[in-house]
Amino acid sequence: MRRFPKVLLFYIAGVYAFLFLPIAIVIPMSLNAGEYLTFPPQGLSLRWYVAFLNSEQFTSAFVRSVGVAFAVAILASAIATPAALFYVRYMRSGREKFRLTMLAPMLLPEVLTSIALLFFFNQLFFGTGTLAPLVIGHIVITIPFVFLTVTSALYNMPAGVEEAARTMGAGAWIAFRRVTFPLIKSGIVTGAMLAFIMSFDNVNISLLLKPLGTSTLPIQLFDYLRYDFDPTAAAVSTISLSLTLTVVFLIDRIYGLRAVRF
Amino acid sequence: MRLRLWSFALPALLIVVLFLIVPYLNIVLMSFRNPSPTAIYAPGFTIQNYVRVLTDSLYLGLLKDTLLYALATTSICLAVGFPVAFHLARTDSRWRGLLYAGVLSPLLTGVVIRCFGWIVLLANNGLINQLLGLAGLGPYRLMYNPIGVTIALVHVFLPFMILPIMNAIQSVDPRLGEAARTLGASGPRAFVRVLLPLSMPGIQSGVILVFVLSASAYIIPMLLGGGQVSTMPTVVVQQLMGGLLWPFGATLALVLSLSVLVLVALFGVLNRRVMRGVA
After folding, report:
1. Which domains does chain B have, with CATH numbers?
2. What is the pTM of this model?
3. How much is the ipTM here?
4. Residue B225 DSSP label
C-alpha cells in the first residue's frame, strides 16, 4: 500500500468534490417541489419532469438530438474505422502527416471550426436550411475520437493472428471479418459511443450550424438558461445527464474507461 | 493494389479536407474581403479589417481580457490538477478506476449542464451563499462577473490538464524519485530535479490544451458572465449571428487564434530554455 501525506489526500478529495458538485447538484434541484431553484428543495416532486414532457420545444429538441447523435455515431465510425485500419496495417509513408490530419478536428478550437463551416456552407449551399451541415460538422469533430479508439484497439490485437488466418488459407475479406473485426469490435463500439456523447452534448458546432427555428437539446437549454431559471432546466439536465452516464457506463463495461485517452 | 488500399482512408480524408481544411482556408480569405451592408461581403479584397482590429482599443482590450482569462484558467488548472494527476498516476487504491472515471466523466457531461450547475451553486441565493449566510457572511456576488466565469472555466477544462500529466507521470519510474532521496536530495529538490522535468511533456500538452480551449470558450462566459463579461469569442459569435459582419468576424477570430498560437509557441521555447537549466 502506497502512502500519501494526509494533506495531499484532503486536498485531492476537495478537488474531486469541486469536479462532482456542480454536476450532482442538478439532480436534487430537478426534484424540487417549489417554484424556484432554491436550496434546500421545498419537498419532492416530479412536476418539472412533467413540465419537460409538456414542453414541445424541449421534447422535439430531445428527439432531434438523439437522432442526430445516432446518425453521427454510425457515420463517424463507418468513416473513421477504415482509415484507422489503413493507417495501422498498410500505410508506409506519410504516416505522421496522415495521423495529424485525422486528429486535426480535435486539435483545432471548436468555435473556429464552427465559424469556418458556417461560412463554407452558406457560400456553398446558400444557407443552412437542413440538418445536413450540423450533422457533417458533428461528424468532422468526432472522427478523431473513433480514429483514436480503433487505432489503439488494432495496436492491442495479439500479433500475427491475422497473418495466421491468411496462412491457413483465408482470403483478405474472410480474415478481416472472422479475425480482425471481432477483435477490434469493442474499440469501434467505444468510438461510436464517444461520438454519440460528443454529438449529443455539442453546443459550439450546433449553435452556428443549426437550421433556423429548430434546435438541439443543449442549444434549447442554453437559450432557456439565458432568460429563465426554473427547475425545468434541472429536469432537462438530469435527463440528458442520465443518458450520457449510461453511455459512459456501457463504455466502461465494454472496453474499460482507461482505454479512453485524449 | 496500392490504390485499393488507399480507398480505405479516402472517405475520412475527403471529409477532413473538404469540411475542415478548405473551410479554414476560406476563413482566411473571408478576413480579407470587403464588408457589405446588404450581402455577406462585397467584391474585392482589403486589409482594412485587420487595421480596424489592431488599432481599435475596444478590440485590443477584448483580446487582452480573453488571453488573461485563458492564462488565469491555465495557471489555476496546473496548480490544482498536478497533485491530482500525481495521485492518480501513483495510487494503488482499489478506488482507482472510480477516481479515473471521476476525472473523465465531467469531460463527457455537456458544458451547458455544468454551467447550469455552477449557476445553481453561485447565485445570490445559491447553495454557497446560503452556506456562507449560515456563518453570518455574504451574500457575495459570485457570478455574472469574472469570478464566476473563471471558476466555471477551471471546472470545465481541469480534466484536460489532469489526464496528460497523469499519463506522463505514469511513465516515470517511481524508483527514480526514491533514488534521488536516497542519494540525499530533499523532498522538494527531488521533485524539482527529477519528477518535474520528467513529467514536463505531459505538463506541456496540458497547458497548451487548456490555454487554447479556454481562450476559445464561448458558452461559459456567455452563461456565467450573464452579459456582463465579454471575451473575443462571445463578440465574434454575436457579430456573426446578429448581422452580416462576416469579414470582420473572420478577422477577429483569426487575430485571436494567431495570438494564441504565438503565445503557445513562445511557451514551448521558454519551457525548453528553463528545463535545460534544471535537468
Report:
1. 67-231 (1.10.3720.10)
2. 0.88
3. 0.87
4. H
